[in-house]
Fold:
Amino acid sequence: MREPGRLMSKDEKPPEKPTATRQPIAGGEVRGAHPVAPATGATPPAVERSSDTEVRDFVARMRSRPVEAATGNGRLVFAMDATMSRQPTWDMALALQAEMFGVVKAVGGLDVQLVYFRGAGECRASRWVSDPDALARLMATVSCQGGYTQIGKVLSHTRGEAEKKRVNALVYVGDCMEEAVDDLCGRSGELALLGVPVFLFQEGRDGAAERAFREIARLTNGAWCRFDAGAAAQLRELLAAVAVYAAGGRRALERLTEGSGAEGARRLLASLPPPRSASEGRG
Structure:
């Protein structure tokens, strides 16, 4: 440091200013040890949210995940809103689920897991079953209770199942949506990365539910369909069409348009996005 009052010669260099110690943090980025307040009127620096980091980590895991060959039975998660307004449809589905198994025998069989929500935060999943009688017994033990929708839990549960072993499709039957749409879309995107299409069957004409269901179907390359209250034939054909799709893929569904349940298969095909390639098969 030069003496006070002495002029600096042309050969001297000004002393370096002390700098704040910088420490590495996660991800290799380096930041100052102490935060610096932004200047008045300046835009504060963007702060990375933990949810963004979680999404990046999830994408990285999925890209490194080996692709599992489609072997054995197809796997389908069958989810239902079991709140009080769903009682009529629950009874209908109980009567129709055996036929859903029956139509897939010719295309390789189907394993189904029942998921339902009801009451104050209750959301449960059954074991995987390939026997229609076993599923009927499981469904018969459940009664509907008042409560709000928990579609987000269904999507997250399905993601967990698909991370363990391939899930060919998620079916959801409901009439309303009482959750944050953006959150549901984020969870749907995670299913899309895993190749799980979501098929949503809506009873009634609730506008908010329809918009959310359509967007979930779009994001996952699935489909949205409406069915009329009490129309057992409609729901039977739609469920059978999804079961065939889960067990045998798009080509099996196309073959179904020429036989029994043709109308449901045609409606489902019309709602599906175009195939990604001419060789698209199961799922």
User: Anything to note?
Assistant: The longest helix spans residues 232-256. The domain at 74-271 is CATH 3.40.50.410 (Rossmann fold).
